[in-house]
Write a structure and sequence with these properties.
This protein is mostly helical. It has two helices and no strands.
């Protein structure tokens, strides 16, 4: 066997105590992090289960709505109401266009006042 050259380093008692404190502090921090990770995993699992249950209930409700729609009679809307809806849509569009024109006019007036 080869001879090994060993080097010995002297550590002062204060340095050894400080190092030991730092190591223990690091271990404590790591354990706290591990605890938080475990808590996160359990909460995440619970969240996923809750989401899955919610998804199942939504599917059930959609199925029930479909059944109700197939059972209930379909309403026939009179043509007069269809025409009123179309007129209302056109009126809304005209109002929106008028509002834009009004806003443009206001901006032009402000620009004229500034000049």
């Amino acid at each position: 066997m080869k001879e090994q050259n060993l080097i010995h380093v002297r550590i002062e008692p204060e340095e050894a105590l400080d190092s030991k404190k730092e190591i223990l502090s690091s271990q404590m921090s790591l354990l706290m992090i591990l605890k938080r990770i475990k808590k996160y995993k359990s909460l995440r699992t619970e969240e996923l289960k809750t989401k899955e249950n919610l998804h199942k209930k939504i599917k059930e409700i959609n199925a029930e709505i479909g059944k109700l729609q197939s059972v209930l009679p379909k309403l026939k809307i009179p043509e007069l109401l269809h025409k009123e809806k179309e007129v209302a849509k056109v009126n809304k569009k005209i109002i929106a266009d008028d509002d834009l024109e009004f806003q443009l006019q206001e901006i032009q007036n402000k620009l004229s006042a500034i000049r």
